[in-house]
């Protein structure tokens, strides 16, 4: 399911003294099955953008096309419900949306809203526990007896249970410990690869964007500043710094090395592994020279 | 939803009304609320209206802004008006539609009662538009101060008031967030059968309650960490100062009361 934004503009509180334009001139294309990272400074319009993906917000002008559904400002909210099954959103701090007496009921809540029979939803819930890394006996517990990290996983399972084709993640690991962070990011990446899930990740972590995304959208002051592969985006660290963003640590290491040693490192150094490889190559070159 | 919520929305400014002591404002309004009921003929209503509109002009807040605050109650006013028009049977018959007849007294009564309503709401809206919630609570605390002698927990009541005022916008924001999260999970907040609507409300209220309790606990801890021990011996950052203008306004409203009393029929 491709997602296409054409000339999208969104104004909050339109036609009132409090009107505020949060998005304008947004033209983007998210290909089916891709992993896209959206980065940008706080207030750059990322959150507004992502709420257009499942019709929670409708563009003030312009169109958003998701698969065969077109969203304009004329669409009625009720007609957008089918879209919400296809596009799942994991909001920031998703554990705030938990409300049922048991974890199982909460996970089944989403699918049952879309007409999935109870038995099937329960089966799905059991499968998902393994996927999000929780023991199965948690299903019978109250979500409010769990730890913060566990609640986060339950909430994520609640969104995945709807079996969306597109998953939108708004800083899914904010406030988690480093290990939980890694586990959750790896889980989403696995899902993306195994099920060809189109994934949109809104993040402040340049490292995550570099490691997982194959395409990036950089937002600045309500519009798209630049799009491209992580390699393209992180090439110009000075320009990124100007709009309040930076590059992954490994890219900074590479830049510093190049400056200090007066050489060019051919690898983009987007991940630790790539960087280690590049440094290893440097060493072997020096060694060959010495011998 | 948020746009019509004008009550409680402070509009910064530096007019005479803005600078008034909140205690004076509260007293003026307290008296006003009673003397509104003194007006009962054209002359008294005219004087009352002129007084109220002068206050709005003095506050230098656009009239349209104040009138917008009347929007949420316009239906109540309209129904009150119609009830009086149709139910009062006094004076000459103006119109006759079938068995319904509209009397002159009814129309008069309808206009008066609606006007009374609108003026009351206008003046209270004016209070919240020109006074920050903190000032209002400081004012209330100071005015109720004497009650401390009979062991009324005045400081605690004022604190409760300011905390609840402070958290209204936070709660609204939170509500909107949870509505969005649940809508994304397929909840329909706008329609659907009754049983599903109940379920939708539950999915909103439970998270809202839980976060409110959590926030209350955090707030209490934060206050204790900063050494809060209640009102005993507590000094204020903002001292209330009673100025001659405050006395003048209070005098004006008392004069108004006397005039209304003299002119009412």
TrEMBL record, chain A:
Protein name: Energy-coupling factor transporter ATP-binding protein EcfA2
Compartments, as annotated in UniProt: Cell membrane
Database matches in InterPro entries: AAA+_ATPase, ABC_transporter-like_ATP-bd, ABC_transporter-like_CS, ABC_transpr_CbiO/EcfA_su, ECF_ABC_transporter_ATP-bd, EcfA2, P-loop_NTPase
PROSITE patterns, sorted: ABC_TRANSPORTER_1, ABC_TRANSPORTER_2
Function of the molecule: ATP-binding (A) component of a common energy-coupling factor (ECF) ABC-transporter complex.
Chief place of localization: membrane
The protein's assembly and partners: Forms a stable energy-coupling factor (ECF) transporter complex composed of 2 membrane-embedded substrate-binding proteins (S component), 2 ATP-binding proteins (A component) and 2 transmembrane proteins (T component).
EC number: 7.-.-.-
Membrane topology: Peripheral membrane protein
GO CC terms in record: ATP-binding cassette (ABC) transporter complex
Domain ABC transporter: 6-246
SMART domains registered for this protein in UniProt: AAA
The entry's keywords: ATP-binding, Cell membrane, Membrane, Nucleotide-binding, Translocase, Transport
MF (Gene Ontology): ATP binding; ATP hydrolysis activity; ATPase-coupled transmembrane transporter activity; cobalt ion transmembrane transporter activity
A Pfam family it matches: ABC_tran
Assigned protein family: Belongs to the ABC transporter superfamily. Energy-coupling factor EcfA family.
Taxonomic superkingdom: Bacteria
TrEMBL record, chain B:
Signal peptide: none
UniProt entry tagged with the keyword Transport: yes
Family statement: Belongs to the energy-coupling factor EcfT family.
PANTHER family on file: PROTEIN ABCI12, CHLOROPLASTIC
UniProt-listed HAMAP family: EcfT
Keyword DNA-binding: no
TM spans (from-to): 26-53, 73-89, 110-130, 244-263
Keywords linked to the UniProt accession: Cell membrane, Membrane, Transmembrane, Transmembrane helix, Transport
Record text on subunit structure and interactions: Forms a stable energy-coupling factor (ECF) transporter complex composed of 2 membrane-embedded substrate-binding proteins (S component), 2 ATP-binding proteins (A component) and 2 transmembrane proteins (T component).
Task of the protein: Transmembrane (T) component of an energy-coupling factor (ECF) ABC-transporter complex. Unlike classic ABC transporters this ECF transporter provides the energy necessary to transport a number of different substrates.
InterPro entries attached to this UniProt entry: ABC/ECF_trnsptr_transmembrane (IPR003339), EcfT (IPR024919)
Lineage summary: Bacteria, Bacillati, Bacillota, Bacilli, Bacillales
Native species: Parageobacillus thermantarcticus
A GO cellular component entry from the record: plasma membrane
Membrane topology classification: Multi-pass membrane protein
GO molecular-function term, one example from the UniProt record: transmembrane transporter activity
Domain of life from the UniProt record: Bacteria
A Pfam family it matches: CbiQ
Localization in the cell: Cell membrane
Record protein name field: Energy-coupling factor transporter transmembrane protein EcfT
Encoding gene, per UniProt annotation: ecfT
